[in-house]
Amino acid sequence: MCIRDRVSTQSTWVSKLIVESITADEILNLLKNVLLRKQFQFGVKSVDARNRSAFIINYSIDGKVVSEQFTQTIHKEKEGHWIIFEHQKGELLRYFEVKPLVGGSVMLSMITTLSSHQYRHRNPANHPYLLASIANFLNGNYLGDRRVVVRSKRVLKSAATWDNLIQSQSVSMIEEKKEDELPVSNPREDSKAAKYLQMGEEMIQQLISTAKLIPDNRWVFETEKRGMTCHTNIDESGLSMTRGEGVVDIPVLTLKNYLTEAKHSLEFDKLVENVEILEKIMCSEARIEIIWQKVKGALLISPRDFVFLAFSKTLSDQTTYIVGKSIDYNRPPQGKTVRAHLHIAGWILRPVPSKPNSTHFVYLVKTDVKGSIPKGLVAAAMKKQAFIMTNIEAATVSYTHLRAHETPEHLVCRLLLEKK
Predict the structure, then answer these.
(1) What is the DSSP letter of 3?
(2) CA atoms of 115 and 156, how far apart (whole Å)
(3) What is the pLDDT of residues 306-333, one digit of tens each?
(4) Residue 262 and residue 292 in contact, taking contact as beta carbons nearer than 8 Å
(5) Which of 387, 137, 107, 109 is nearest to 243 (CA)?
């Protein structure tokens, strides 16, 4: 479909989402139901549907009410592939493309236009915030027994001129730099990805069985702090394993979203010096990544690094498993860094029935730092890891506070920075 003569030469933004466990038709129904935008879109005070294709949205911006009247036109390109135009007085406000991808995921793209008047009034409907709001609305929610996952977000300012878009005739054909430039595998088509999926499921079972406080696991109670307990276990080779447990006043999904972002370890773990996602494995059943992490050295102790498979999965009752384990990967240590081995590390997160905004957690970690570091020194450091949740709690409070008070401009800046 050609969109010539339907658009004006204004500043443009391109936003994209890759969504799993949802169909293109289901995303289309969300976009068609403009009344739903009051539930998830920033600043919306009310929505008036004059008819099936004409709408008025009233926004509250800086204490003032700004109204936007537009019409919506929907075109079916081919099976599951939809184009949606939203116009105001003959000018294009928003352009959506809903396109199914190989492997079962769906790409949702949006172009917004910004005239100087619209930008001055900071109309949130004409910022990438709308698509980010849709992403937050979808991610982690359930459609029946399916858990929707937003796998990636991209936001680009002035990514293409309208002339380019007219020539390409499709948002999906715009040449752009991907968010991470990471290799992505599909377990349905890639034997390596299928292997990682199986490994992740086995890691969860290992986490569950090892974390149990039963005699066979030989856990020894060490101490308690702020309602959190620490247990340790020393194996035959002298390696120490640590277990932390407690309840924290953070909702399960908020905690899960924070912990599964690898970069956040830099905020709550003072030992971590650097972290990088080496590979993402596309999967609707779980989040699977290969991560490199560097730990700081001290005095005569060289820095350590790990390369591990990170696997997380949330069940329908919100029980969440987040687990990591070292794997062989083509990323040799640099300089004087020593490659350590992560036997297992992970979280079991469960909602507390009597406290809806709280989470019961169990944390487990066992590492072999290699080298000649005294085992007693390592064991002492490992005990402190049992209470890492105190650092996470403080960091998460700041994280949720910032997200709750984030303006559209702040969100755009954050997404652009995170893309780099």
Answers:
(1) -
(2) 17
(3) 999 999 998 888 899 999 999 999 888 8
(4) no
(5) 387
